[in-house]
Amino acid sequence: MDKVRVGLVGLGFGAEFIPIYQEHPDAELVAICQRDGSSLAALGRDFGIDRRYGDYARMLADPDVDAVHINTPIPLHAEQSIAALEAGKHVACTVPMATSVEDCRRIVAAARANDRRYMMMETAVFTREFLHVQSLLRDGSLGRIQFLRGAHQQDMSGWPGYWEGLPPMHYATHAVGPLLALAGSAAESVVCFGSGRIAPDLVARYGSPFAVETALVRLADSTLAAEVTRSLFETARQYVESFSVYADRRSFEWEQTEGEGPVIFEGEIADRITVPDYAHLLPQEVRRFTTKGVYDDEHAHLSFTQGGGHGGSHPHLVHEFLRCILEERPATVDEVTAANWTLVGLCAHESAMTDGSRVRLPEFAVPS
Ligand SMILES: NC(=O)c1ccc[n+]([C@@H]2O[C@H](COP(=O)([O-])OP(=O)(O)OC[C@H]3O[C@@H](n4cnc5c(N)ncnc54)[C@H](O)[C@@H]3O)[C@@H](O)[C@H]2O)c1
Prior knowledge:
Layout: E1 4-9, H1 18-23, E2 27-33, H2 37-47, E3 52-53, H3 56-60, E4 67-70, H4 77-86, E5 90-93, H5 101-113, E6 118-120, H6 128-138, E7 145-153, H7 173-183, E8 187-195, H8 200-206, E9 212-219, E10 225-231, E11 240-247, E12 251-253, E13 263-266, E14 269-272, H9 307-326, H10 335-353, E15 359-360
Parallel strand pairs: 1-2, 1-4, 2-3, 4-5, 5-6, 7-10
Antiparallel strand pairs: 7-11, 8-9, 8-15, 9-10, 12-13, 13-14
Bound molecules: nicotinamide-adenine-dinucleotide (NAD).
């Protein structure tokens, strides 16, 4: 195989990836799939994709599809990932992996049983900020990590129905992933408190009453702990998806308000920095997607609005997914890593619902 033939399902957020696959030298975007026929036809026409499926099972039966990239609503991630793995396809799935321990376990088992690659497409570990701090850790500039803190605060009112009342920690991977990836470790156990209250009609959806959930995570085989905070409703804050790393030589702290830039601390000295871009790590053909929207002038009506494309992460995600298949190696966010990051959130919510009891992650989700 010298090119991976990809089928893309879910074309809201998922449409952002169409031109990246089309221009990546290791990929061929052979098919797209979503339920809404008219917008499927419009996207297919705009991007010159003839094979369009309204039914996901039919795309999985297509022998010309080697790999699927899933961007459908959260409740569908588990079943669609498992169905694809069982159909012999490699799977990239947007976050979170699933919404129950059992579904995470089934996905890990399905990836192994079918010997297929699984990658959770966590944007937060391919942003330029993440790649920059990773390089500062690797070259010793920060020194030895002492503590990590992550937060994801977003007002989700008005988003599609399945978001309403979602337990904040059920969508925590953007805040969890960078901390564990930078520490080079996995989570072992978690304690979490819920704080504040959301409106009764929101509570009724998932039985989760909290406005904010805040967790302390104990890392496996490590002296480190990490702190994660999430809010989705009725908590005033500018959007933030952040990580901070405190280390013995220098520390990196995320900006407080958008655009002011993060700070590197060296003792008492605070230096506000501009984070460089990491497009040079990518094939020439897709480098422009780290700093620009994916749509050209002709497709400007499908505007790309999500804050610089999630830190320029989208082409890095695509590149890693394609390379792990072609190099026959696990993805950086493989099935066990994805389960670990996702289960930090699920176990944290369980802890919050039992007033902060300590919850251990299941063994299958902690790499040995
Ligand atoms: N930073 C990130 O990683 C990030 C950002 C945005 C969204 N997301 C994730 O992307 C996913 C989609 O988000 P969205 O805002 O585009 O949602 P959306 O509800 O607007 O769009 C979902 C898409 O899935 C399609 N779909 C739904 N059910 C289907 C089915 N049974 N078969 C085939 N297609 C089906 C719909 O037609 C639509 O194209 C969510 O899971 C969300 O968590 C991740």
